Automatic annotation (TrEMBL):
Keyword Transmembrane helix tagged: yes
Organism: Propionispora hippei DSM 15287
Membrane topology: Multi-pass membrane protein
Keyword Disulfide bond among UniProt keywords: no
Name this protein carries in UniProt: NitT/TauT family transport system permease protein
Subcellular location: Cell membrane
Alphabetical list of PANTHER family matching this protein: ABC TRANSPORTER PERMEASE PROTEIN MJ0413-RELATED, ALKANE SULFONATE ABC TRANSPORTER-RELATED, MEMBRANE SUBUNIT
Transmembrane segments annotated in the record for this chain: 27-46, 58-78, 84-105, 126-143, 179-201
Gene Ontology CC: one annotated term: plasma membrane
InterPro entries documented for this protein: MetI-like, MetI-like_sf
Amino acid sequence: MDVLKTLAGLIGDNSLGIAVLASAKRIFIGYLLSMALGIVIGLLVVRFKYLDENLSPLILGMQTLPSICWLPFAILWYGLNESAIIFVIAIGSTFAVAMSIESGIKNINPLYLRAAKTMGAKGFTSYRYVTIPASLPSLISGLKQGWSFAWRALMAGEMMSATKGLGQVLMVGRDLADISQVMAVMLVIIILGVAVDKLIFGRLENNVRQRWGLNKA
């Protein structure tokens, strides 16, 4: 009950709304950057054998590096500001997206590619009508994983900075030894995560499954 009362209080004084909007803006920008970078890196690695042999292990290593490890670098490079947090978000999820692109394309059923080649599909046409559609299930899974990494990076960045956001509200609760506020913010983060998964990624997965006939009868 104390958690719900605290949550109602945060909503009532609009501090929660301001924090959610600030965090949403940062993760939106950072995640879009990570998607763009991750897709480009993944496609380049698959397209060029030299990059595949030399960058694939590096991408795996970078992906396993916790996002918070980038925070000191970002602070030294950008200062303790908005750009540093967005950088941590972007770099924290870029490699998960890149790995999903690489894995999805490499694991396409060879029959699809041979059939497309037999029908005269080459180059960009083959990528557009065969390679990309066939790798969509893996890509969506990678985007979901990238989103989770982006959330973690966002919280790490906001908790280390003084800027408004859910992470900052979480840290205020810690500094005040207010367990109810800490749990209220954690509850909000969980709710937002579930909502995004159901409303965005869940719908994307269902659309792909329907198009490819993967839904259970």
